[in-house]
Fold this protein.
Amino acid sequence: MRPVRNLLACVFLVVASQALALIETYDFSSPELEERYQQLSEELRCPKCQNQNIADSNAPIAQDLRKLLHQQLEAGASNEEILDYMVARYGEFVRYRPRFGGTTVFLWLAPILLLLAAIGVLLATLRSRSTKVGDKGTALTEQEQARLQSMLDKTERDS
């Protein structure tokens, strides 16, 4: 009985150790700074994870960025100064909403361009279908009409 209990205790400890999560707490000098911290940490992308913001990421670089963000806020840096620093260090990619500029013009305009291209393809397809329907080439020849009539006659006789 004792080995089973020891084994269960070991299994429990292993499972429990996996459930431990790193919880960072920072003391802010004002509630406004804490609110800005939350806002900025959700706007900045983790350079390692690339699909998570630094608030949600457990990557070591995200932890460093959260610590740096806290330090800069407490030092009195504005949101723009902090974002400029992060962009200078990690590139425009670090922002979830990159600025509209020379290198991000395509990123901002791509959805509009893709929508216009899809509308163009749709219009071209509809135009091509409408011209095909109006062509004389879609009418049945006399031979085809006779074959169709014979098929219809045969189905009437069989039923």
